[in-house]
Amino acid sequence: MLVRDSTLGAHIRQTGAWQDMGGFSWKTCRFNEHTNGGAGVSTGTTDRPQMSSATAANYTAQKYLAGSDGWNPVQ
Question: Which residues contact 3 (CB under 8 A, 6 or more apart)?
Answer without folding.
Answer: 32, 33, 34, 36
